[in-house]
Amino acid sequence: MHKDLLTINDLTTKEIREILDLAKKLKSELKKNKNKPYLDGKTLAMVFEKPSTRTRVSFEVGMWQLGGHTINLHPGDIQLGKRESISDFARTLSRYVDGIMLRVFEHEKVTEMAKWASVPVINGLSDNDHPCQALADVLTIEESGKKLKGLKLVYLGDGNNVARSLADISEKMGINFVMASPDGFHLSKTAFPIHNDPFIAAKDADVIYTDVWASMGQESEMKERLKHFKPFQANSRVMAVAKKDAIFLHCLPAHRGEEVSETVIESAQSRVFDQAENRLHVQKAVLLKFLGKK
């Protein structure tokens, strides 16, 4: 029976470790120009409702580097759930391709696709979760020389899909996840500490992480959100209370001057472009694990 990746909780700690180690192996092979067509003849359908840079490029390039192919399906092409039911679309697409990746708004579309598809379904992003991003984040942290177990990861900002996947992967990998956000914007149902003061949260942090204050679809709320989130900017004052060797992460795109200052994102502590690159290597590991020969 095939396996889907809809949230981090679809993976065991052992499977996360396997994906991280496989990503490192594939990254090393690529750097040594020893790329291998592990997915020769395989095809991945990519369904996009949201604009995409890192998700589209990393999956498309990754699939090509693995010897496979991609098909991009845009909202105007398919009108997911409108022109045709998700159940009919999923069952039809399953006859053509070896896997389906979705970048959508409602998480229910991902779960509905997985319910009806007979091939692996990968959540490239939904409003609820961003599992592939969290895997790339953890890989980047390890590559910075830090051990995951016992590490303090502080997330500043909105309790969005990125924060939720980070909290989930932290729980599985023994990371001490801490969140700082205004009242009304916290993650719900988390056992990790939540603070209203970013400086208390960031004290002795190994990693400071932030994301945009208004995700796609929330643009109309931006003016109001700015009032609440302004004190939670990742800036040099916040980084000063973290450990001296702390690193800064952001899943990008970044709104410089809002959730992160220019000095922090361009500092020697910033690993945002390593993080962006690692989306490629993690995506390849996920594709190989889920679409590869059993």
Give an overview in words.
By secondary structure, the chain is of the alpha/beta class. It has 2 domains: 8-130 and 278-291, Aspartate/ornithine carbamoyltransferase (Rossmann fold, 3-Layer(aba) Sandwich); 145-270, Rossmann fold (3-Layer(aba) Sandwich). The protein contains 12 helices and 9 strands. The protein has helices spanning 13-31, 54-65, 75-78, 86-93, 107-116, 131-143, 161-173, 198-202, 222-229, 236-241, 262-265, 272-291, and strands at 43-48, 69-73, 99-103, 121-125, 152-156, 176-180, 194-195, 207-210, 247-250. The strands form 2 sheets. Strands 7-6-5-8-9 form a 5-stranded parallel beta sheet. The chain has a 4-stranded parallel beta sheet with strand order 2-1-3-4, sandwiched between helices. The longest helix has 20 residues, at 272-291. It is globular and about 55 Å long. The model has no long low-confidence stretch (mean pLDDT 94).
